[in-house]
Specification:
Length: about 260
Amino acid sequence: MTTALFTVEQITQFQQNGFLVVEGLFSEEEVTLLGQIGRADLAIQQSTYSRADGEGGAVKLNIENEVHDDIYGAIASSERVVNRMEELLDDEVYHYHHKMIQKEAKVGGAWAWHQDYGYWYNNGCLLPDMASCMIAVDRATVENGCLQVLKGSHLMGRIEHGPVGDQTGADPERVEAALERFKLVYCTLEPGSVIFFHSNLLHRSDQNKSELPRWGFICCYNTRHNDPYKESRHPRYTPLVKRNDADVLKVGRVQWEQMQSHPSI
């Protein structure tokens, strides 16, 4: 473990609230490159799919289990993210997967209330000792469908989940009760800011009916001690090789230059 990156108060806040916002974790150039590359990336376009939200809209996303030598992998394995995640989860973590949520202006769909562990549980993870880091690629506002969380709801434990459109959502009866007892927080973020959130935290987002897109890059991690007992769509434990923070810019610049020179990349 490295020198502490969070204060005791911040770790306590994560433990009590189920989430923690860190402003400006990525620079303007880094997050601009992430957005430019993501939007021009044919591989992302080819692997992107939609999930109906049950409200007449659909969410576009792509998911990747492997860490490659690209800007996505450099971020997902960066010391600034991984070391912080290990502090919050108090163990070595490994890359579970990462994904780009693509909420386009006017048409981006909603996410139903859910817990990530609501379905990661079915992948053979015995414990909810897992979390995600969402990086704001675009400014996230109430109007363009920012993340919403119920503060402290991770302490409820896992809730039963079922179909909501093409998505998997938490039991509506439990959600209604939780809405009465836990504070609803709209997680507005500037580009480059991040939110770390626990796998049992109830969260959702509204449709994007604004004129501005809201893309978000989410890196998901599992703890070493929570290695799944069976194979599933996401990987079991393998050590994650951490990358120097400077690699995000270094790799991103090279990747962007290659994409401009060879648009088919």
